[in-house]
Amino acid sequence: MHEGTLRALEFDRIVEAVRSFALTPLGASQLSKLRPIQEPHGVQEALAATSESVTFLEANPPLALQAPRDLEQILAILTTEGRPLDGQQLIGLADFLASIQAVRTAVSRATGGPFPILRNVLKDCRSFDREVTAIRAAIDPAGLVVDDATPELRAVRNRLRKQRNRLRSTLESYLRGKDTARYLQEQVITERGGRFVLVVRAEQRSAIPGIVHGSSGSGASLFLEPLSTVEINNDIVALEENETAEIRRVLMSLAGKIRQRALDLRHTLTGATE
């Protein structure tokens, strides 16, 4: 059909209206490409699918399909070997895959049927229950990797907590100590460059042995890491690096489990989009 004719019919406005009902970014993208069907057989098939879907929705709850807004970006990352998804992306993907399975179950148990066209659309979708369970066990709803994701991560975080408590206790002793508190500009523990430090008066620089990590804008205060905490700070930095590496390994592993089923994922996405 000629583009001028489509514009005269305001077909673009019809497409946009239909597109607003899309449950996923993939569906919205496909709907944007809609064009009038001109072959009689194609028209009959489309009308039959529409009629069956209306019958389904009149007799059953709405389809439970849900997807994150960045689904297309998530899928693009999955096509690149070696790129991890972050925790939020993995949770979004898990919820999407679980919702497809919920739709399959709903259609198979639907009342008012049969619904052969809907069943056919979903017949090549695959279950990702195992992968979804693994993601939800390792990542909390906020997208953070939980301590129990791996024994290694749990051990690293336990050690981190102990060292951070030890560090805070040591630094707080400077805040409470009558021989050291008087040299402090502020009774606080702060952070500079990933190191926990005290705020010392510049003129008292030599009163507390340590390493200076910068000064305030006025120059009146110095951010000092006492020598007694240097080793603890070093240990914390090393543990944080280990934690980051282990988190990345967990995220890579979870994304890899989905990546290994690329063909199943493609079939499932096709059904969900349709």
What is the topology?
Elements (H helix, E strand, L loop, with lengths): L2 H6 L2 H9 L5 H7 L8 H20 L11 H8 L8 H22 L7 H7 L6 H10 L12 H26 L7 E9 L2 E7 L8 E6 L5 E6 H33 L2 H12 L1
Antiparallel strand pairs: 1-2, 2-4, 3-4
Roughly how many Å apart are the termini? 23 Å
Strand content: 5-15%
How confident is the prediction overall: mean pLDDT?
Answer: 92
Largest sheet: 4 strands, antiparallel
Identify the strand order in the major beta sheet: 1-2-4-3
Which runs of at least 5 residues are low in confidence (pLDDT < 50)? none
Please tell me what the overall shape is. elongated
N-to-C SSE string, H for helix and E for strand: HHHHHHHHHEEEEHH
Number of helical segments? 11
Query: Count of DSSP E strands?
Result: 4
Helix proportion of residues, in percent?
55-70%
Please give the radius of gyration in angstroms: 29 Å
Structural class: alpha+beta
